[in-house]
Amino acid sequence: RGSVKDFPDFDANQDAEALYNAMKGFGSDKEAILDLITSRSNKQRVEICQAYKSLYGKDLIADLKYELTGKFERLIVSLMRPPAYGDAKEIKDAIAGIGTDEKCLIEILASRTNQEIHDLVAAYKDAYERDLETDIVGDTSGHFKKMLVVLLQGSREEDDVVSEDLVEQDAKDLLEAGELKWGTDEAQFIYILGRRSKQHLRLVFDEYLKISGKPIERSIRGELSGDFETLMLAVAVKCVRSTAEYFAERLYKAMKGLGTRDNTLIRIMVSRSEIDMLDIREVFRTKYEKSLYNMIKEDTSGEYKKALLKLCGGDDE
């Protein structure tokens, strides 16, 4: 359900040559760069990088960084990286220097599949020669840290066979760990929400509502706090109920009000363009009564805007 597909009659050498020509001489043909890169799939872009290297003995990403600037450069360069390396770079940036971008950590680790998490851990090791878990542990604390470590294992159950007894037990355990307890047993929340399959958790949430009379979201808000609460809501509830809705909400928040959170906007548009952009657009339209396309159009400008609109893939108004 992505908006970006493989380009038909693809020729990596031809594309590498076109990009080389668009960047040679004085100033670069940004329009040509933008059109070509946003209409190729990630797999094809990676092949173009290899072709560029063998034709010109140069690194395409380095040349693009040199030729382009600002948000447009960040977007184009993000498109050139394989998804796992894109995630690794985002996480590296999120924990570099003083302070941590917890929202970025939450978004990536809460929404990726087991396989995507395994690929991310390997890419991080390859790109930075460091262990991702060690870096995250060094940069976060408390229950928030513990839950991130659970997610980093990429060991969420994936079978769709659901045991009714276990559903009832989990719902009861969550209720006893939170609402019915003086203080909260966070470990129980971490175990159940971090390990069980999505299919199973959806039924647990239904059962929870039945036995407690309130949605699990409300209990999480009442029982947990800070980044840990945000993470549990993202993982547990939003990404389990609907990943597309989670991303639609993140995109809306990145653009509404004054100023745009460009890093968030770029990260989501790039990482979901080949996965579920069509679903995200649909949810966005229903939830906010305007199209994602229009909101991007009103909120951004120049080549940056054009490239984002290409990734969006169409207007739903």
UniProtKB/TrEMBL annotation:
Pfam families: Annexin
Main localization (coarse): membrane
PROSITE patterns, per database record: ANNEXIN_1, ANNEXIN_2
Gene3D superfamilies: Annexin
Keyword Nucleus recorded: yes
Record localization: Basolateral cell membrane; Cell projection, Cilium; Cytoplasm; Melanosome
UniProt xrefs under InterPro entries: Annexin, Annexin_repeat, Annexin_repeat_CS, Annexin_sf, ANX6
Keywords, sorted A to Z: Annexin, Calcium, Calcium/phospholipid-binding, Cell projection, Cilium, Cytoplasm, Nucleus, Phospholipase A2 inhibitor, Repeat
GO process terms (BP): animal organ development; apoptotic signaling pathway; cell differentiation; mitochondrial calcium ion homeostasis; negative regulation of sequestering of calcium ion; tissue development
SUPFAM superfamilies reported in the protein's UniProt record: Annexin (SSF47874)
MF-aspect GO terms: calcium channel activity; calcium ion binding; calcium-dependent phospholipid binding; phosphatidylserine binding; phospholipase A2 inhibitor activity
Gene Ontology cellular-component terms listed: basolateral plasma membrane; calcium channel complex; cilium; melanosome; mitochondrion; nucleus; vesicle membrane
UniProt note: domains: A pair of annexin repeats may form one binding site for calcium and phospholipid.
Family: Belongs to the annexin family.
Record function comment: May associate with CD21. May regulate the release of Ca(2+) from intracellular stores. Calcium/phospholipid-binding protein which promotes membrane fusion and is involved in exocytosis. This protein regulates phospholipase A2 activity. It seems to bind from two to four calcium ions with high affinity.
PANTHER family listed in its UniProt record: ANNEXIN, ANNEXIN A6
Protein name: Annexin
Originating species: Colius striatus (Speckled mousebird)
